[in-house]
Design a protein that fits this description.
This protein is mainly beta and 254 residues long. It has one helix spanning 3-20; strands spanning 23-27, 32-33, 37-46, 54-55, 62-67, 70-73, 79-83, 86-95, 99-106, 110-112, 117-129, 144-148, 155-156, 160-167, 170-171, 176-181, 198-201, 207-211, 216-225, 229-230, 236-250.
């Protein structure tokens, strides 16, 4: 094979890898509040381990928090900011009573021409408030969802995180889950391409586990085929449904 052909193949392989590593981000610096606090939530669509680029986010379909079993619509709280032509969102929520807060976002479908598919990442972030601890494992009713089997806050680097992948409320056997670290500012360099997005599979009952190697934010994205759709130019296209959860891990000596 000529060098030119090799290089072309290499470029295609690289672009398909990075196209696969889209993650909807939904997180706040606080994963646990010991006192009432203002949670600053950040919503961006990016490649977390590569530290970018940002993809444009149309206005989300849903953005909410579940508190004491009640769903509070937070769409109107969203503030948008364009960064390099890509819309990002933020919101502030006052955590002032004990209990678990489950934040959820259903982004608008994102068209990815490189993969001929729409991407919809249903994403959750859970914050514990003042020891209330009653609801961190409850479902928010997304069509695809990761239900944590480990309390998703108060985690140390080195803990094993476990969850169950569900579609329409039923476990997804052998679901594939992509894992990425939120490499803020792109400071860390992955030793190889394969380290950017790690891949794990659920077992026959849809349960997966992952040893968290480093303090910081981590995301688990279970990717499931969704319904057929029409591309913007009217051709047949796929839909990728993602069930995502973000967690934060801490160093033990800090
Ligand atoms: Cu992308």
């Amino acid at each position: 094979m000529s060098i030119a052909k090799l290089l072309t193949g290499f470029t295609i392989a690289l672009s398909s890898i990075s196209a696969m590593a889209h993650f909807q981000v939904l997180l706040s610096e606080n994963d646990y509040c010991e006192n009432p606090a203002e949670l600053k939530l950040k919503l961006i669509f990016t490649h977390p381990m590569e530290g970018g680029p940002l993809m444009d986010m149309a206005e989300p379909k849903q953005f909410f928090v579940i508190s004491e079993g009640k769903r509070i619509d937070l769409l109107k709280s969203l503030k948008t900011e364009k960064i390099k032509n890509s819309a990002t969102y933020s919101s502030v929520f006052k955590a002032d009573k004990p209990g678990d807060l489950i934040f959820g976002v259903e982004p608008a479908p994102y068209w990815e021409p490189a993969e001929n598919k729409y991407i919809i990442h249903y994403t959750k972030y859970i914050v514990g408030v003042m020891g209330g601890e009653e609801a961190w494992d409850s479902s928010v009713g997304f069509p695809v969802e990761i239900e944590p089997l480990v309390r998703p806050y108060g985690l140390y680097a080195g803990n094993v995180f476990r969850g169950i992948v569900k579609k329409d409320g039923k476990p997804v056997p052998f679901a594939e889950i992509e894992v990425e670290y939120y490499n803020q500012g792109g400071k860390l360099k992955a030793p190889t391409e394969a380290h950017i997005t790690q891949v794990i599979k659920a077992d026959a009952s849809g349960v997966f586990s992952y040893g968290i190697p480093k303090a910081g934010f981590w995301s688990f994205a279970a990717l499931v085929d969704g319904p057929k759709a029409k591309s913007p130019d009217g051709k047949e296209a796929d839909t990728e449904l993602g069930a995502l959860i973000w967690i934060k891990a801490y160093d033990m000596d800090k």
